[in-house]
Amino acid sequence: MTLAQVDEWNGATRVRFDDAGRRNSLALDTVEQLREILVRDSDRVLVLGSTAKIVFSAGADITVDDATRAKISDLLYECYELMVSRRGLVVAVVEGSAVGGGSQLASAADIRVLGARARFKWVGAGHGLVVGAWILPSLLGRSTALDLAMCSDWVEADDAVRIGLASAVQRDPWAHTESLLKRFAGLDPQAVAGFKNLANSPDLLQRLAAERRTNATWGGQAPAKP
Hints:
Blueprint: E1 4-9, E2 12-17, H1 28-40, E3 46-50, E4 55-57, H2 66-85, E5 90-94, E6 97-99, H3 101-108, E7 111-114, E8 119-121, H4 136-140, H5 142-151, E9 155-156, H6 157-162, H7 173-184, H8 189-199, H9 202-215
Parallel strand pairs: 2-3, 3-5, 4-6, 5-7, 6-8
Antiparallel strand pairs: 1-2, 8-9
Helix pairs in contact: 1-2, 2-3, 2-9
GO molecular function: catalytic activity
InterPro entries: ClpP/crotonase-like_dom_sf, Enoyl-CoA_hyd/isom_CS, Enoyl-CoA_hydra/iso
Protein name: Enoyl-CoA hydratase/carnithine racemase
């Protein structure tokens, strides 16, 4: 069963993760569905969110066997690349927690709309993974990126705005997103695609590819403590 709701919403394609009982952990079929949508509707605005306010996504499902987990991780990296390189804008509506692959999806979006209970955590180094190195320096600067990735502390909504992850905390994130979509409808698609292309320097995509290769060999367990 695919655990995402997909609909047409205010002229955009909307994908909402719908497995709150498992904190929207991303199963293989969910990630495959997201990839298909990113490819199929590459010129349209895509809105990512959740049907539950308490959680955006806890990232890849790590309860599956090693081969499936590795495939989910690799497909997620493909989704990140599609998100930053596709012509259409991607908006992530984050009302709850975004962890690991969830925080990566939010980071890969062009615009993040935050609710008051939005919070982020980039976990990786403590589990033997490199997470966020491809995008966080570009978004937030090298020092802040290292702080978030090495300490893996929660970043609450107000702090996310302070460090530049979003422009503001919205009282009603979905209503604000609806107003954004109305404004986007008047934009020139060629200009949008051109801006995205220039903003995505080759260095960013090279870092994404390197992080994807590094994490492809992860065995699913944190390294032994010295």
